[in-house]
Structure formats: C-alpha cells, structure tokens
Amino acid sequence: IHPYMTSHNLYMIPTALQLQSQAEANGQKNVQLIARTIQLMATMLATDMYGDLPEANMSMFIAPKYKTQQEIYDWMYKEVEDLLAAYQSSDWVNCPSNLALDTQLDPIYGGNLSKWASFCQALKARLWLRKLPNWDNTPANCNKIIAMVDEVLNDANWKEPLYHYDGGKTEQN
C-alpha cells in the first residue's frame, strides 16, 4: 500500500475522527469544524489519487471494507454543504464552550473560523471542478464553478492554508 494511503488511513483520518469526538464531548464546535474540514481535504486528496478508499474505521488493513469513489464523492458533496452551513451558524461559531485557539493550537489560521470557512469554500470549488471532465461538462456548470472560485479569491478572509514548520525546539523531539 502506498505511503500516502497508509498515512491517510492510519494517521490523518483516525486523528481527525478522534479530535472530532473529543471536541464534541467537550462542546468545542470550532474544533469539530476544523477537524471535519481537514478530514474533507484529506479524503478529497486520497480519493483523487487512489479512487475507492477503505472505510475510516478499518482495522490495520485486515480485509478492509472499501467505499466506492462515487460513495466518497456523495459524502464529500454533502459534508462540504453541512460544513459551510455550520461555519455560517452562530450556534457553531460563537458557541460558549468553544476552545480558544491561537497559532500554537492552530498554526494554519490561528483559530480564525472565517479563514477556515473560506478554505472550506475553496474545497467546495475543487469538488465541483471534478464534475467537469467526468459528469457535467456544461457551460452552466463551468460558470457556477468560476463564480465559486471568484467568491473565494475575492473573500477578504481567503488565505492560502500553508503551514511553515519551524523545525521545532531543540529540547523537544
């Protein structure tokens, strides 16, 4: 199994799911949103590279159950809409039990949910780009995708999600 597939199934997705579970138990809706957004991005990258994927709760690759790429895309289209609605919801964004996030806990956007929402909108545009060569190569669909991309690029909150690893501290592993 390719190293990225291994990383996706053994590290990325289980970590995102564990983070979501812990955040849900603590009422930290902002952390849930970020973890779900990362899960969406990781799943998108993995299915575009490999097609069908093992289910996230698989056990060490022993006869894993696979989801078809169509099932994965159906989930991703629903998930991105659910996420965008949650990013617009005051119940999620301004939840009193949300964890105060800074650049130590969120080195990408420092806990700024508006920036995470803009990134999620960019993921939606990327999902829709997938329709062009495969399912819906029409002028109307192309215009819809262009409008989504323009919305992201013209959003004052848009910032490329780059993480610059500082090398860590010498006293830490």
What is the topological layout?
Blueprint (H helix, E strand, L loop, with lengths): L2 H23 L3 H22 L2 E2 L11 E2 L1 H20 L1 H4 L19 H17 L1 H4 L4 H15 L20
Antiparallel strand pairs: 1-2
Helix pairs in contact: 1-2, 2-3, 2-5, 3-5, 5-7
Features:
two-stranded antiparallel ribbon; 173 residues; single chain; mainly alpha; 2% strand; 7 helices
Brief digest:
By secondary structure, this protein is mostly helical.
Structure characterization notes:
The protein has 173 residues and is mostly helical. Helix 2 (29-50) packs antiparallel against helix 3. It is globular, with a radius of gyration of 17 Å. The chain contains 7 helices and 2 strands, in the order ααββααααα. The chain has a two-stranded antiparallel ribbon. It has helices at 3-25, 29-50, 69-88, 90-93, 113-129, 131-134, 139-153, and strands spanning 53-54, 66-67. The model has no long low-confidence stretch (mean pLDDT 85).
- Helix content range of the residues, please? 55-70%
Low-pLDDT regions = none
Number of helices: 7
Class per helix and strand makeup:
mainly alpha
What Rg, in angstroms, do the CA atoms define?
Answer: 17 Å
What would you call the shape? globular
Strand content: under 5%
- N-to-C terminal Cα separation, in Å? 28 Å
Widest sheet, order of strands: 1-2
Overall pLDDT confidence: 85
Please outline the major beta sheet.
2 strands, antiparallel
Order of helices and strands: HHEEHHHHH
User: What is the count of β-strands?
Assistant: 2
